[in-house]
Structure formats: structure tokens, C-alpha cells
TrEMBL record:
One Pfam family named in its UniProt record: Peripla_BP_6
Family membership: Belongs to the leucine-binding protein family.
Superkingdom of this protein's organism: Bacteria
PANTHER family: ABC TRANSPORTER SUBSTRATE-BINDING PROTEIN (PTHR30483:SF37), LEUCINE-SPECIFIC-BINDING PROTEIN (PTHR30483)
Record bears the keyword Signal: yes
PROSITE patterns xref list: TAT
Positions of the Leucine-binding protein domain: 35-387
Keywords: Signal
Record has Aminoacyl-tRNA synthetase as a keyword: no
Source organism of the structure: Pseudacidovorax intermedius
Protein name (Swiss-Prot/TrEMBL): ABC transporter permease
Amino acid sequence: MSQTFISRRRVLKSGVAALCVPALGGLARAQGGPPIRLALVESLSGPFANTGEAVFRNLLWAVERVNARGGIALPGGARPLQLDRYDSKGQTEEALSALRSAIDNGAQAVLQGNSSATAAAILDAVDKHNERDPRRRLLFLNYSAVDPILTNERCSFWHFRFDAHADMRVAALMAVFKDDRTVGSAYLIGQDYSFGQAVLRESRRRIAELRPDVRIVGEELHPMGKVKDFAPYAVKIKASGAQAVFTGNWGNDLTLLVKAAREVGFEGKFYTFYGNALGAPAALGDAGVGKVIAVADWLPNVPTPESAAFYRSFRARFPNPADDYVHMRMQLMVEALAQSIAQAGSTEAAAVAAKLENARVSLAGRSGRMRAADHQFQQPLVVGLMDRQGTPGVAFDVEGSGYGFRVIKDIAPEQAELPTTCRMQRP
């Protein structure tokens, strides 16, 4: 069943203040039609529940912002957005079941991102549904599933990715690593599914290309979300003599890995996709200072007044330190969708997609554009280095840990952009 954010009990259970509940009710009554329903399909229980709840908070905040300014202008009157929650429990089959429920409940877009394997299954299901039932077509908005294949060989007119894909993120990390002469050996470790495999494959290729002097002293994949004790992996990493670890791990698989590495006394660096949040800085503590590097579309310590104000606004909305993990790309995604619906003058999926594939959006001094050729969002990327809060460039910490990330590399969209092999089939 769907779990809408207008359900007071479910909103409170999610740790989100109930003040948004009457606001949507008033909008729905005052405006020109029923809410435009967005279906969030994520792990809201199980080992990756924290990542799903972090996504929900981000999307809720973005939806609230659209609704606070009156919703989306359409013929017949403005309409609000409504965010419905569907728990995939971290399982692809559950996600597909949730998608079917969302379609039956009138969803006009499905939003998912945590797990590229799940994203691939949803993409296939959306393609087939839209062909079979054109009167109920919907869009697939992807904010975190970064297997490159999704906007290359598997690209779809109905799918839009707002995160940089794995190869783009690896390239950003390598822009820093290529000049890091303190590292002469590296260990590659990741989750054993399409995304983790893609990260290791591209990391290996880029290291050989940019730093042929660096030895890869270990490479392995582990089951996703099933390892409770990473000590055996950490022992192998330390014994290998590696001076740096490259990993795309996320959620508990990252937190437990870095915690185990600290406990066995590993003193090397971590080049990560997601080392900047969800428990990793607190797990490392002082051992991570100057040694954990993370790539993102944005970091709280991006050195501009607009960025600082944006981050303070999010923390004012969600003051609990445990709720701290804001994603600029998710805010831009909702803004792009709202803009495209208004420009289309319709919620019909094909009409909205035709506008969304050329969308350009800006927020808090950051901006991006959708590339029509493959529906891969093009945006700046930043690389940050973990340090203590209060040191130069680290005004904000992560989750109240006392540690934050100083921006050491800001990569322009045209530098982050990579070619695509997509051959888009349009309806």
C-alpha cells in the first residue's frame, strides 16, 4: 500500500514534522485539481532504511517548496504535488510490486535511486507498462542509481537520471587521485551487483591510465546489505599494504567497512562515492581526518553564501542531527519536474518528458541541464576531504559528528560530461 505524506501517523513515524499535513490539504481544496502524485519506491525498512528515509526527507522538502509557492500552474488552475511512500524493503521484487500499486493508485511519476539493479528492473517495467497502457503512462525519475548502462545501452525516453553516473564520479575522484603522490598502492572493494562492479571496473581502468605507477594490491566484491562484520575484509586490506581504498559502497555497507578498517588500524586513505554521510565520518573519527575523500554533486561546505543559506534552511526544517543528509540533485530534480509540467501545460507523461529532456534548472547558486540524447543530467561535481569542523573551509559538520568535508575540487559540468552510447527510441 502507499504511504502518503498526508498521513499524519506515517509522517510522524518517518521523523518528519506534521506541520506539512494541513498545508497540502489546503492546497488540494483551493487549487484547480487533484494533487499530482509522485511515488517514492525505496528501502524504508531493513538494512538500508536509513538511506530511504534520507531520500524521503529530501523529496518531501522539495515538494513542500513547490507547494508553498502555490503548486504547479496548469490550465484549470494550479495543482500541488503529493509524495507517496512505497517500501521496497531493499528487494527488487518488492519494488516491482510497489510500482504496480503506485500505478493503480494513479502515480504520474515513480522516483527511485538506491540500487541500480532495482532501477534496471523498474525501468524495464515502466517501458513495458507505458507501451501496454498509454492512457496511464508515467515517468521514472532516478536520483541515485548510477550504473552507466542506464543512460547508455538501457536508455529510455521515460527514464531521467539526475545523479552523475558511476564513470563520471570515478573521473571526478581521479581528478584528485592523479596528483596524490602519497599513494603507491590501492585496494578496490565494492558491493557485488551492477553498480559495484561498474565502480571497480572503471577505477581499475582509470588508475592504469592516469597512475600506472600505482599497484592494485587487492580487488573484491562482497554481498550487498548482508555482511554484518567487515573485519575479515579490513584485515585483508591492511595486510595487502594498500595505501588507499577505492569503494562505491553506500549505506551500512560503507559505515561498517570504514569502522572495521579503523578498528584494525588501517591508516590509508578512502576514495569514496558516499564517505560524506550516513554514519561514515562518525565511524572514522579522527582517523578519517585528511584521509577520506568523497565525490558529490554538492557539499554543505561549497564556499558560497547561497550554498550556506540553502544548507541552513534544510537543517532548520530537519533539526535532528540524525536527519542531516541533503542532496542538491534531488531538489533540482523536483524543480525540473515542476517546471516541465508547467511548460507542458499537462501531466501527460509524453508531453512532460518532451519538456523535461531539455530542462535547465538552478537553485542556491547551483544549476544543471538535462541532456536530451540520453536523459543524463549534467551538473557540477565537487570532491571533498574530511576534516574537523571549524577548520578553514569546514563551517558545517555531518550529522553532528564534529567532522565535515572541505571542497578541494570543483568540477564544471562540461568537464564532468562524458559521451553516451544511447540510441534513444522516442514514442
